[in-house]
Amino acid sequence: MAQALPNLKDLDPPGLRERLAASGVAPYRAEQILAWLYARGVEDLHAMTDLALDLRERLAGQWQTRALETVALQRSIDGTRKAVLRAADGAVIESVLIPDEDRTTLCISTQVGCPLACSFCATGALGFTRNLTTAEIVDQVCRMREVLAPEERITNVVFMGMGEPLLNLPALLRAIRILMHPRAFDLAGRRITVSTAGLVPQIRPLLEAAPVNLAVSLHATTDELRDELVPLNRHFPLAALLGELRSLEAISPRRPVFFEYTLLAGVNDAPEDAERLLALLRGLPSKLNVIPVNPYPGSVYRTPGPETTDRFLGILARGGMTVTLRRSRGADIDAACGQLAASGEQDQGGTPRADKDGGG
Ligand code: SAH
Prior knowledge:
Blueprint: H1 13-22, H2 28-39, H3 53-62, E1 68-75, E2 81-87, E3 92-99, E4 104-107, E5 111-113, H4 122-126, E6 128-131, H5 134-145, E7 156-159, H6 169-180, E8 192-196, H7 200-209, E9 213-217, H8 223-229, H9 238-246, E10 257-263, H10 271-281, E11 286-292, H11 306-318, E12 322-325, H12 344-349
Parallel strand pairs: 4-7, 7-8, 8-9, 9-10, 10-11, 11-12
Antiparallel strand pairs: 1-2, 2-3, 3-4, 5-6
The chain binds S-adenosyl-L-homocysteine.
């Protein structure tokens, strides 16, 4: 079998410029190629009509430009759309498009499966296959843009799909540079959020390289419980995580840390948890998103009732925390947080799932 060609979308803007320069092509050609590939969504190198014909032909002989195919698209009653996307090696991942009043957020994946095995997360239960390439990360945006309604535009991108983004930092950073480049997707850093389970050594390198929002999945206020829910905590316990966050210059009241706290009935939803949370985060510029858990099939966790949730939120709000209850979207199509578990067979075959009540 012929060796597959390298993918042009694996190159970030500086990388593309360099590669072109190395073969004697003027660097400004990179801007034209970025505009075709990303702003216009044209993947056929032969169709890039402002490039000389011989350059088009040369590039087409050397590069491929597509990394993912859409194998299934589901639409929730709330307008959320989930795509199952397949890579060249057959790996499947999921991306979720979430329209809201004033924004349309795309939630994308960075790994096939995830090695972190958080106890309440469907992706974690899958285990880990591999990191996604830069081309596979940005192609999620390309594929999902094709399912937008005419008046829709992707305004925000969150790295909150399958996988731990900071375990795939070089590919993530190249993808972010493509998202932010004015000739490509032209997204401001404040419209991009990277969510981590707390891979402490990679947080500073991320924020030094890219002016994006940081989200941290906290979920527990003691090491004992967090060790169980987020096993990564055994390597980077709460004191190390919060200490590192407090030391970051990139974090300020203008650019707070977004903490995520998945509420699990009877596990982390007591008033004492809320009190400890206030104490832990005191003085750290932060906002808190509380997400009632979306159970997945076989999960032992349950969603707390509205009184417990209100009590929890009330304590935090009275303590001065900026806290929002994240209403889960797309639970009817298993597109909600922690429900992303693409496995080609299941999703194409439409195997009935037991968690249709999963959402908020
Ligand atoms: N690995 C990264 C990003 C992916 S998870 C991280 O951990 O942050 C995105 C968010 O969804 C995380 O906060 C995660 O803890 C949360 N999540 C996972 N499973 C969930 C579930 N079943 N219900 C609600 N939120 C869940």
